[in-house]
Each structure stands twice: as C-alpha cells, then as structure tokens.
Write a structure and sequence with these properties.
By secondary structure, this protein is α+β, with helices and mostly antiparallel strands. Helix content is 50%, strand content 22%.
Length: 116
Amino acid sequence: MKHRQERVNELLKRELSILITREINFKDCLVTINQVDVTPDLKTAHVFVSVLGSEGRAGVMEELETHRAELQAGLAKHVVLKYTPHLVFHLDDSIERGTRVIEILRELEQPKSGEK
C-alpha cells in the first residue's frame, strides 16, 4: 500500500471518530472505528466499526447509514482531498472474537473440579 493511502486511511479514521462522537448519540453502547481502507482512487472508504454494548448492532449500522451524508459533509470540511470518499460501513467483530478466544483460554487454564 502506498504511503499516501496509509496517511489518508489514518486521517479519515481520526476525523470520522471525532465526527461520530460529536454528531451521533448511541445509547448504552460504545462504537469504535477500528480501521478505514480507502480505495486507490480515494473515491470510496470502507469503514470498519465495532460495537460493544447492549444496543443492537443492526441499529448502530442503520444509524451510521442514516448519518452517512452528514459524516461525508463533515469530512469534506475537515479533510482536504480532491474527492470526498463515499463511506461504506462494515461491522467488525474482531474485538468480540478476540474476547471470546481469551475467555476460552481462561477456561482451559482453570483446573477441573476433581483435580488438585
């Protein structure tokens, strides 16, 4: 991946995190942008989002889709690029999977009730 593309990915990730925190209020959950992958032509940005908490993931994704135009407009104001990328949101469950793996490892480490 080119250095410019990596810099744009990080810049979009940081600015989107700020915009989402400021513009959208999610009740009882934590929404985190894990990664942004912009296409080489910089016209599309795939945004990977993780959701921790009680609010349904589908509800969070719907809310992000509803606010997509506002988020793109906010990016256009704060990030100077030839094109403001079209945002495509994806649910990222990697944190959840990692947490589950840690739980399984802890269960394996604990001695069985019959053992000493």
